[in-house]
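Field log, afternoon session.

UNIT: design team B
ACTIVITY: writing a sequence onto a fixed backbone
BACKBONE:
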C-alpha cells in the first residue's frame, strides 16, 4: 500500500486526500450485520463527514440513505441520484424558509426547535415531521462533539415534552419519527443504551411513528490497539430492546442510524510532502506542505492521527513534531515517533476520511487539495486541486 500511495502522490501531487472504497463497504456491512436481527434497518450516511459526490454515489450502491444538515447537502444527495425519500434533513438554527424549501423537495424533515416546530406545523400540518429530542446525556470524546447534554444547542429537551405535545395537538401535525444524537466517539455502550431508553419513553407518546433514529457517534480506533465502540455488542443489546419496544408499541418500526465517521474515517488517508526538517534547541520539526487549512481536527479537537513515513517505512524511528505552513501555531503532532524523515518524504496521516476535507478552507489563500478514490483497485481522481482561478472566481474587483 505504501507504494500505491507514493504513486498517487507522484501522479496527482500533494497534499492530497485518498479514500479506499473497500474499507467503506466493509464498515457499512459490519454495521448492517450487527443489527441483522432488526426486521427493518436504515443507515443514513452523514454527508457532513465527507460530501464528495462520488463517495455519495458509492453509498447509493450500498442502498444507504443520507443524513443531511443543510439545503446544500440535500442538493448534493439529489445530484448523486438519491430519491428524496431516502434523505433525512436534520438542521440546527436554520431559517423556516430553508426548512420549507427542503420539505418542498420531498425530503424527510427533522426539527429540533419548539418555535420552528410550531411555525412549520401551523403552515404545513400535512407534511410528516421527525422530532429531535435532547436526552440530557453527556456523551462524546470532546466537548465540541458532545451534543446531547443539558447545555447543548441541539434537540428539544425531554423536560419540554408536555409543551411539545401541545404543539402537535394544536397544529394537527403528524409526527412520524423520533430522533436523538448524543455525541461522537462514544465508548460506553451503556450510556448509549441509557439514552435509548429515554428515546423509547418519548416515542411512546406518539401513535403514528414510522421510525426511531438513534443517531450515531460510534468511536473508531485511531492507532493500533486503540479502543473503539463494540458495535457487535451494541447491536445485540439494542436490537433485543428495540424489538421488544416494537412489540409493545404494536407495530414494527424502522431502526435508523446516521453514521459518518464510523463509515469513512478509516477509509481515508491524507498525504503530505516534507518541505524541510528543522532542528531547534529542543525540537526536530518536520515541516510539511499543508496545514490546519486542510486538516483542522488536531488543532480544533486535539485529535490524534497516526502518521507514517511511506517514503521510508523501515527507517529508524526518531522523535518529530509535525507542523504545517500556516502563519500561526499549526501543529499536527508533538514529539511523535516516526521513521526517519528526510526532505521530500511523503507522510501519511491515517483516519483522514471523516471531517477532514469537508472542514478544509482557503486560509492563507492556499488551495484546497485534490481527492482520490481507490475503487476496484484503481485510483480515480474525484476532485481536482484548486487553482488560482478557483480562488478568485467569485471575488469582484471594484474600480479604485
Amino acid at each position: 500500500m505504501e507504494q500505491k500511495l507514493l504513486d498517487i502522490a507522484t501522479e496527482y501531487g500533494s497534499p492530497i486526500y485518498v479514500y479506499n472504497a473497500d474499507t467503506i463497504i466493509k464498515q457499512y456491512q459490519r454495521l448492517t450485520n450487527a443489527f441483522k436481527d432488526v426486521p427493518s434497518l436504515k443507515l443514513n450516511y452523514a454527508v457532513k463527514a465527507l460530501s464528495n459526490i462520488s463517495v455519495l454515489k458509492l453509498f447509493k450502491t450500498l442502498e444507504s440513505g443520507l443524513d443531511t444538515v443543510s439545503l446544500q447537502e440535500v442538493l448534493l444527495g439529489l445530484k448523486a441520484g438519491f430519491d428524496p425519500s431516502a434523505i433525512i434533513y436534520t438542521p440546527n438554527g436554520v431559517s423556516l424558509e430553508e426548512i420549507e424549501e427542503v420539505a418542498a423537495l420531498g425530503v424527510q424533515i427533522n426539527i429540533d426547535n419548539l418555535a420552528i416546530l410550531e411555525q412549520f406545523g401551523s403552515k404545513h400540518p400535512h407534511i410528516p415531521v421527525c422530532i429531535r429530542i435532547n436526552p440530557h446525556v453527556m456523551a462524546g470524546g470532546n466537548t465540541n462533539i458532545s451534543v446531547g447534554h443539558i447545555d447543548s444547542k441541539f434537540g428539544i429537551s425531554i423536560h419540554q415534552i408536555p409543551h411539545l405535545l401541545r404543539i402537535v395537538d394544536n397544529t394537527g401535525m403528524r409526527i412520524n419519527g423520533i430522533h436523538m444524537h448524543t455525541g461522537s466517539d462514544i465508548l460506553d455502550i451503556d450510556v448509549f443504551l441509557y439514552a435509548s431508553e429515554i428515546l423509547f419513553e418519548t416515542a411512546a407518546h406518539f401513535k403514528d411513528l414510522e421510525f426511531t433514529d438513534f443517531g450515531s457517534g460510534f468511536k473508531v480506533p485511531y492507532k493500533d490497539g486503540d479502543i473503539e465502540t463494540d458495535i457487535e455488542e451494541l447491536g445485540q443489546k439494542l436490537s433485543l430492546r428495540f424489538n421488544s419496544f416494537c412489540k409493545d408499541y404494536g407495530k414494527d418500526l424502522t431502526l435508523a442510524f446516521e453514521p459518518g465517521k464510523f463509515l469513512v474515517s478509516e477509509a481515508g488517508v491524507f498525504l503530505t510532502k516534507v518541505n524541510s526538517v528543522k532542528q531547534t534547541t529542543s525540537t526536530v520539526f518536520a515541516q510539511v506542505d499543508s496545514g490546519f487549512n486542510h486538516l483542522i481536527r488536531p488543532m480544533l479537537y486535539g485529535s490524534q492521527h497516526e502518521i507514517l513515513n511511506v517514503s521510508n517505512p523501515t527507517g529508524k524511528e526518531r522523535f518529530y513534531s509535525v507542523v504545517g505552513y500556516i502563519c500561526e501555531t499549526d501543529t499536527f503532532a508533538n514529539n511523535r515517533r516516526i521513521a526517519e524523515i528526510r526532505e521530500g518524504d511523503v507522510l501519511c496521516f491515517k483516519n483522514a476520511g471523516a471531517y477532514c476535507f469537508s472542514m478544509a478552507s482557503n486560509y492563507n489563500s492556499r488551495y484546497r487539495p485534490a481527492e482520490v478514490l481507490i475503487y476496484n483497485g484503481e485510483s480515480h481522481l474525484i476532485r481536482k486541486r484548486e487553482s488560482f482561478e478557483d480562488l478568485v472566481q467569485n471575488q469582484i474587483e471594484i474600480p479604485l
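LOG NOTE: The mean pLDDT is 93.
NEXT ACTIVITY: expression trials, pending approval
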